[in-house]
Structure formats: structure tokens, C-alpha cells
Automatic annotation (TrEMBL):
The keyword Cytoplasm does not apply. Residues 1-19 form the signal peptide. Keywords: Lyase, Signal. InterPro entries: Cyt_c-like_dom_sf, Quinoprot_gluc/sorb_DH_b-prop, Vgb, WD40/YVTN_repeat-like_dom_sf. The keyword Chloroplast does not apply. This is Streptogramin lyase. Pfam families: Vgb_lyase (PF24684). It comes from the Bacteria. One of its GO terms (molecular function) is heme binding. It comes from Pseudomonas fluvialis.
């Protein structure tokens, strides 16, 4: 597919058959550069919903893409939609009212004028979640604010239109209890303070919308960018991690419905596979009490993270709610289940050059390794921070059983750095074969040397390292989730370098994940609080920000294609918080 924006000198005769050309201006006729134009088929091909709202397993579907591009300096944009079908069009520019048209021909030429937005409430509503969160008054308590970003933005945005609506303190208390039941861990001391901040703060911002901060203006590089999306799942899905496979297809896991989506981004052809269920498996898996109140749930495994074997292309998947690994052969379409009995909550997974499968065990403070040659597991125990934490880790199994029997999780005391749950999270294999990991609540990273089986833990000078990746020279890039920055760790001298995120407002942004384009020496970062993706050029230190087309775009991982395009998924939990309630697979072509 061609880039969405082409040179104005391009003649009409050379345009593609379905080239839609749009000129966007304000009411006075002045061009509106960087206007965001989104096209959707008026009657899109969608994955069928005849299996409890999802496609029947292993039946081929086709999904029509949604395409977003940005106008050039003259307010003009051209988009080549791949099908000659009537289209729905939306134009979005900060500071202006959205404009929508239906039944647009794929080869139309349109002159559109936008109306400036003057209503302060509507202008505030255009801002991303972190613009609202950044305007909350924490009374100068930086620790409380970090807790709010780390724990109250754990699986969804804090400050989105769903979270900032009118609630009493009693209703916020119910929200807090439900969030803790799902697994968040704000400290017991901070919980009543957070309820007060949210209840009073969002009420004040709704009454005085002029206090809401303004996101950074869009920048000229967007005129060369294009975003494609494929709607997958429904408002009850959680499209967690994804994998861009060497076969060109993208695999996305629905964590709440245990379905593996296979999408061909060239054609939109889609297949869905259900993950294996053993006799006796319960809904919710080993944590059956965790999501009992969730309205629609089919998960027994909780498929989470993906990695491709360099040997045979098999896909390894962590089912976080079981003591298993799934192996999926994308050719034969056969699943194999590998069982282990030491460790809880298999989380993020990566595979080394020797075809060993490495994964974090988030709730048991371990890193696991699966040797594909011997079909054997080994676990690496990570050091506890204190005797109290050792006891807490030892009692994890008891707490899990009590939770499954109905014990409310919000009754458990939690200290400020979540003693008892260091939470090994992200993991990656460096070019030298060493395995690096991050511990979100323990404020540390670590490294395992497979040659010696040694484990080293390194305290971080920042809070909440979430996911990490190694670059081409072996430096480690870390998402500092509650600190609105990414951090580079230099193993050669043990130093850390900070890179504040360009989307941060008053210190508010939550980078869930990042990935390194080793070929281009660029770092891609998820702007989970700002509806964006960001790219850092390592050599120059230059940032570029790419806004996404939907509000409440909560991205969890990034995959990088050979041409420099990137894939991610909108994995908000729950997905009904997303604008229009629709999770998607997202492809960004950043342009030049």
C-alpha cells in the first residue's frame, strides 16, 4: 500500500484507482495542517461473532482495515483505500469539532471545513487521559502521585473519559476494591488518599475544564505517517501482547477469552484458535476468584506473551493463570502444552539463540527456562528484599486459595513498595546471550548468565521498571512506568541515563513497554496514557510522537517489521473503555 500522503505535483492520471483526496480547512478557508483523517468501510467485513461473540474456531474470516493519515502543510491528504466501497470518514484536529461523513466514494475529491471548538468542556474532553491526570492535585505528595500512576494505571488509563466521570467517595471505594481484587497493589496508607484525590479532583476538573492541561501539538513528521487498524474482539476482550511472525502474519492474544488471533496484514485474512483446556480447568485458572464479577469471561489460561523460536518458527505463549507453557505450530496449527510445578504466573517470554525459552514468573519471584532439547524446566529464584518478603512469597499459595474461596483482597495490608510481591515482569535476551529482567515493585533489574547460571540483581535509581529490551550493543532500555521516562542502562560501567518522554505532562505518562529497532538504533515506546506511540533516535536523541486514532489507546507491547513499521494492539482492560468499545490490531507506518 502506498503512503497516505503524496507530493502535490502528482497528476490525477497517476493516482491509484481508489485514491481519496481531501482538503481540510478552517471556517475562514485557511488550511489545517496535520488534520487526522480516518477511513472505515461503511459496511466493513468483520470477523463473525457466532461463538459467544467471537468467530468460530479455525474458520477463515476477512477484516476490512481502518486507515488513518495526516494532512500535509497545505491541509491536503490522499489515502488509497484498498477496496472500491463506500466509506465513512472522520476528520479530527485538536481545537476543532470532529467532522464525519458517510457514504464517501473511495475515489472522491472532498473540500471540507472544520468548525473551531469554543466550549471549554469539549476542548478539555479532546485531551488524552494524562492531560486530566496531570491536572489533579496531589498536594505536593510525589510518592502518592507515583502510586496513582503505577497502581491505578496498571491495566487501563487513569484520567480517561470513563475514569473521570461523576462518582461519590463510596463509589470510588468500590472501584478501588474491584481494582485490588483484579491485582493492583496501592499501599494501604495511600488508598483513602487516592479516593479523595480522584473524587475531589475530577469533580473540580469537570466544573473547571480550563484547568485540564493541553497535550503537545502535533508535529510535521506526521504528514508522512499512516496507521492501519483491524478491529478484533469485543468490549469484553483484552488484546494483550502480540507477535509479528517471520511468516508475515501477526498473532494477538485475547487474555480474557483465551483466543489466539492470526491476522495477515496484507490481506486482512484472519483465523482464531482457542488455546488448550485441560479436564478440571476452571474459569480464571489457578486464580478463579480474581475475575468472578467480570461479566463475560472464558479464560482458563490467560494467554499473555509471545515469542517465536529461531529454530522452527514455533510460537511459545505464557498462560499466566496456569503452570504451563503453550507451544503453537503456525504451519500444522497444533498446540502442545508443557507443564511445570515450580512457580506462579508465567508472564513475559523470550527465546535465545540456542532455542531456550525464558520467561518471568511474576508472583513467585522467579525466572523460568524451558530447554526444548530436553523438554525440561529450570527456575531461577530471585532474592527477596527482606525476611518479611520471604514470608510473603512463601504464603502466596495460601493467599491464592483464600482469594479463590472469596476472601476480599482489599483486606490484605500493603506497604508502600508492595513487600511480598517484587513482581518480575519484562525479560529480554541481549546479543551476548545474557538474559535481563525487570522487577516492577522491587525497583530493580537483573541479569542471568546462562553459561554460569549466575544471577545478579541491580537496584534502579527510579521506581517501577516494567518491560525492557536490549539494543544492538547490549545496552538495556527500560520502561520506567510511573516516572514518565525510559532509562538506558550501560552494563559496561553500571550507569543509568534518563530519557524523559515527550508526551509527559507535569510528569504524567505511563510507558508500559518498549522495543528496540536494532537495525536502525531506534527505541519505540508505548504512550499508554496519551493515546500515542513514540520513537527515540538513539544517536541524535530526537523524539517523534505519533497519535493514535482512538481515545483510550492502551498499548502493551510493540513489534518491529523489517521495513521499520511497527505493530501494537489496543489492550485496555476492560476494552469497553476504548473509544467505540473496540480493541484493534494497529500498524504504524512512520514514513520518512
Amino acid at each position: 500500500m502506498r503512503n497516505a500522503v503524496v507530493a502535490l505535483a502528482l497528476t490525477a492520471a497517476a493516482l491509484p484507482a481508489q485514491a481519496l483526496q481531501v482538503s481540510i480547512r478552517d471556517a475562514a478557508g485557511a488550511p489545517l495542517p496535520l488534520a487526522m483523517v480516518t477511513l472505515k468501510a461503511e459496511r466493513p467485513l468483520r470477523a463473525a461473532g457466532d461463538d459467544n461473540g467471537y468467530p468460530r474456531e479455525r474458520t477463515e474470516q476477512r477484516i476490512s482495515p481502518e486507515i488513518t493519515a495526516f494532512a500535509g502543510p497545505d491541509g491536503r491528504v490522499q489515502i488509497d483505500y484498498p477496496e472500491a466501497v463506500p466509506l465513512n470518514l472522520r476528520v479530527r484536529v485538536p481545537g476543532y469539532q470532529d467532522l464525519a461523513q458517510t457514504g464517501v466514494s473511495a475515489d472522491a475529491t472532498l473540500e471540507l471545513r472544520l468548525t473551531a471548538e469554543t466550549d471549554p468542556a469539549a476542548l478539555a474532553a479532546q485531551q488524552p487521559a494524562n492531560a486530566w491526570f496531570a491536572a489533579l492535585d496531589f498536594g505536593g505528595d510525589a510518592e502518592l502521585k507515583k502510586t496513582a500512576m503505577e497502581q491505578c494505571s496498571f491495566c487501563h488509563q487513569q484520567g480517561s473519559f470513563f475514569m473521570r466521570r461523576e462518582r461519590s467517595e463510596e463509589e470510588w471505594q468500590q472501584v478501588m476494591e474491584r481494582m485490588i481484587g483484579y491485582g493492583a497493589r496501592p499501599s494501604s496508607e495511600h488508598q483513602p488518599k487516592l479516593i479523595e484525590v480522584f473524587q475531589k479532583g475530577y469533580t473540580d476538573l469537570r466544573q473547571h475544564p480550563e484547568k485540564v492541561l493541553r497535550a503537545k501539538p502535533w508535529e510535521t513528521h506526521l504528514a508522512g505517517a499512516q496507521v492501519r487498524e483491524w478491529p478484533i474482539g469485543d468490549p469484553f476482550s483484552q488484546m494483550h501482547d502480540l507477535l509479528l511472525h517471520s511468516n508475515g502474519k501477526v498473532y494477538v492474544g485475547d487474555n480474557l477469552q483465551d483466543r489466539l488471533w492470526e491476522i495477515d496484514p496484507k490481506t486482512g485474512q484472519t483465523l482464531v484458535y482457542k488455546t488448550p483446556v485441560d479436564e478440571g480447568d476452571e474459569i480464571g485458572g489457578l486464580f478463579s476468584g480474581r475475575l468472578k464479577t467480570y461479566p463475560k469471561l472464558e479464560t482458563t489460561a490467560g494467554i499473555h506473551s509471545f515469542a517465536e523460536s529461531p529454530k522452527d518458527g514455533h510460537i511459545f505463549i505464557t498462560p499466566s493463570l496456569q503452570q504451563r507453557l503453550f507451544e503453537f505450530d503456525p504451519v500444522s496449527k497444533v498446540f502442545t502444552t508443557h507443564y511445570f510445578d515450580d512457580g506462579l504466573y508465567p508472564h513475559t517470554v523470550r527465546i535465545d539463540a540456542q532455542d531456550n525459552v525464558w520467561f518471568t514468573l511474576a508472583l513467585s519471584n522467579q525466572v523460568g527456562r524451558f530447554d526444548r532439547q530436553t523438554k525440561s524446566f529450570r527456575t531461577y529464584g530471585l532474592p527477596a528484599r527482606s525476611t518479611k518478603e520471604e514470608v510473603g512469597l512463601a504464603l502466596n499459595g495460601v493467599v491464592r486459595k483464600l482469594m479463590n474461596w472469596g476472601m476480599p483482597m482489599h483486606w490484605l495490608p500493603v506497604d508502600k513498595r508492595v513487600t511480598g510481591m517484587p513482581l518480575p515482569y519484562g525479560i529480554d535476551v541481549a546479543p551476548d546471550g545474557r538474559v535481563w529482567f525487570a522487577r516492577l515493585h522491587a525497583d530493580s533489574i537483573g541479569v542471568i548468565d546462562p553459561k554460569t547460571d549466575s544471577v545478579q540483581v541491580i537496584d534502579t535509581p527510579f521506581q517501577g521498571p516494567r518491560r525492557l529490551r536490549a539494543d544492538a550493543v547490549g545496552d538495556i532500555w527500560i520502561a520506567a512506568f510511573p516516572e514518565a521516562k525510559i532509562v538506558r542502562y550501560h552494563p559496561a560501567d553500571g550507569s543509568f541515563s534518563d530519557y524523559p518522554l515527550p508526551t509527559a505532562l507535569n510528569g504524567a505518562e505511563t510507558p508500559y513497554s518498549l522495543n528496540v529497532d536494532r537495525a536502525r538504533q531506534q527505541v519505540w515506546v508505548t504512550g499508554t496514557a496519551s493515546d500515542s506511540l513514540m520513537r527515540l533516535d538513539i544517536a541524535s536523541g530526537q523524539w517523534r510522537t505519533f497519535p493514535m486514532s482512538r481515545k483510550v489507546t492502551f498499548t502493551r507491547d510493540i513489534e518491529i517489521a523489517a521495513d521499520g513499521s511497527v505493530f501494537t494492539s489496543n489492550g485496555a482492560f476492560p476494552s469497553w473503555q476504548i473509544e467505540d468499545g473496540q480493541p484493534t490490531l494497529i500498524e504504524l507506518k512512520p514514513g520518512q
